[in-house]
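Contributing: when you submit paired examples, paste them exactly as shown. First protein:
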Amino acid sequence: MKDMASIVILGVIMGVAARIFMLRNDYRSYPSYPHGYVTHISLGFIAAFLASLAIPALMEKEYTAVTFLVLAAQQFRDIRNMERETLSKLEELSLVPRGLDYIEGIAKVFEARNYLVMLVSLTTTGFAVFFNLQIGAIAGIISIFLTGFLMRGQFVRDIAEVKPGKLHFEKSLLMVDDIVIMNIGSPEAKEKILQDGVGVVIHPKDDNARATLNNLGQRQAILHDVAALVGSKLETGEPDFTPLMRKNVDTGKLALFVVPNEKDIECIIEAIYRTPVLESATQKPLSSDIGRKAAD
């Protein structure tokens, strides 16, 4: 019993360590510090504790204890709903919102991280039971680093190339290269845009990338991340400075316009590259025969 207690404690420690390892508070400012940290670490502890009990309970033939894993899965689904509702409320006061697709992606990630915590704890306790505590600890550490690999998705840099674009006007039409962005009537706004505005062009690498970047949710995610990283001079009541993206319908390339706080084109391009590719936006027409034939 003493050994089993040590095994459970080891599994909990490794599971909580995995949740802390996966916890990020970056430019998106979510989860918030410190309250968001407390919530997610606490839920990670619960996930780790339940998973750590599973194998010892089976060894003791306490099969009913495993049903707690089913209850935990239900609770983690509720976490997704909680994150979705919280972020949706924050959208109401955001000048450059994330978009519903981005919010759904974040909510899925928070749910999935708790399942990864359970996987780490199960791995740790499994190796500790069948071998020893030292091997269980090593297996737990390895699995923690594997979770980082499992959680990594694609970024815009993986599917597109971003280049500077020429920001100019044709009469009242604001354009980036040959792509029309919007109509600007105010002479003062035109002067400000030409002085401080930046335009870039996003070139998809293939038809899969073209279909993915065609998704409005993916475009909104890029605009949000650019505004979050380099800032925006957008103010309420001044729609002329709203960051926008428009598509060349013939080639699929996208033009992005923003009036940043600092006119640094390299930082803006890097901000675009760092935007994650959303699961809900991912399209792979080249995986089908019809898509490959149409691309020829």
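Second protein:
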Amino acid sequence: MGGTTAILGSLDADGRFEVLSELRTTPLAAPVETLRQAAGIVGDSGRGIGAIGIGVAGLVDFDGGIVLKAPNLPTWEGFAVREEASRLFGVPSVADNDCNVFAAGAVSLGEVPSSGLWIVITFGTGIGGSLVLDGAIQRGRGQAGEVGHMSIQAEGGLACPCGSSGCWERYAGREALLAYYRDSGGDPEDIEPRSIADRARNGCGSALEAFDRLGAWIGRGLANINNCFFPHGIAIGGGLTGAMDLWEQSARRRFRENAMLPVWNVVVLEAVSSTGALGAAVLASRLLMGREDAP
């Protein structure tokens, strides 16, 4: 359940995954209605289900199955998503942060190594993060990995829906790119990153400047993460990675300036929007198997 899209998928007993549907999500939609819509689609598919896994864009109490905070989905805050999903679908369920389920999917596909410390970051409507050690998600006390909300501009930082200011995702997320484009004289009617990327690749100065500014902030944030963890690697995904050719040079330059040990080991995960849904299904399968990493 992301800030703009939800992917529904099915994982069978042989490990085959299939996307069933894609739903548009809106920040103010009632979460129970979204779950009812999803349950209807699953019911219409005729599939027998054993468990449900759900990833939500926000802070999720993994053990309790409650959404604690969701800046981009405010109506989900305080929602007992695991309990409600179990009631609607009639099977056990598990809920986690959307980047955590994305990371679980990437590990299951072999895109994130199952050994070493890896930081998985998704760049999209917001910025999600997950800590993966030897293939297992590290949640700390339950909500570790919210790199998008580390304060990266302490003085006069932009206000964030999370209640803080200067958060990284306010400078290196989707809305930031749109703002940079408008500020540099770009067409205010062009509000999609993909169209801005197309213009940049055709030599549009406003679009190129927007991606250069975006890359600088991405690089600064990656340097902070590198300084804190010095991981074996940083794996990135999400919509904005599709335009990495436009911002990578700027990001690398700022990374070199800010990283104590500027070893750039950033890998791009395959741009598959269903990876998060696959990861949620993997958590559901672990729940059925009684694994320790399921509540």
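If you have annotations for the second protein, write them as plain sentences, like these:
Residues 205-229 form the longest helix (25 residues).
The longest strand covers residues 17-24.
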